[in-house]
Records
---
Amino acid sequence: MAGACTAALGFAKQGEPDALRTCFLAAYVRASQPFLGGEDLESMIQVFDQLMTAPGDETFSRALAKQRPEVRSAVGWFLNNNPKLKQCPKTAKLLHDAPKIDWPLVKAFRDGR
């Protein structure tokens, strides 16, 4: 799924709704996987670091608000503790209000798998 998100990055940074949705859904799929990964996990974190501010807080948060709460929660996991959230108050609020899910990926971190 990281490949789909990476492929969509250029369009997503321009605020293209379908590309943003592709990245949001990739976060959901990856957070739902019960195993650790190296390259794909790192690339997802890097993509979301770029995506949060590139299209602007208004565009990013508007696209994210259209997603199901659990998708917003997954995106929040990838943006957790990102200092750029301070520049994006609308996105920060959406992520704060998203459900707190104990994702299979988080369990894998705890279990060291």
---
Amino acid sequence: MASVFLLLMLLVQMSLAMSARSIADAAVAASARRAAVEDVDPATEAESLLAEVASAVPGAIAVVADVTVDARRAVAEARFTWVPPGPILVPFSIGTRAEVPRATPP
């Protein structure tokens, strides 16, 4: 019976980790799209991404966000440690990255 409980707990934590990564991936992709527009400050967008990931992903700690923009592309990255709810077996390190071509006027 204990092994069934442990297996069920592991399955629930893995599904929650996949949900946390999916939420973070959506936030990073949106941030990269926003940063690809002309006249957007990458530092402000990085702060916005950090706040968005920290608030949208429950259990995210040590969130690090970075947005870089060059002449051809905008890159957004977020890394964090995710602590699952309930008994903590192992904290997960989750990272996601999105790259979008810059939108420039013709």
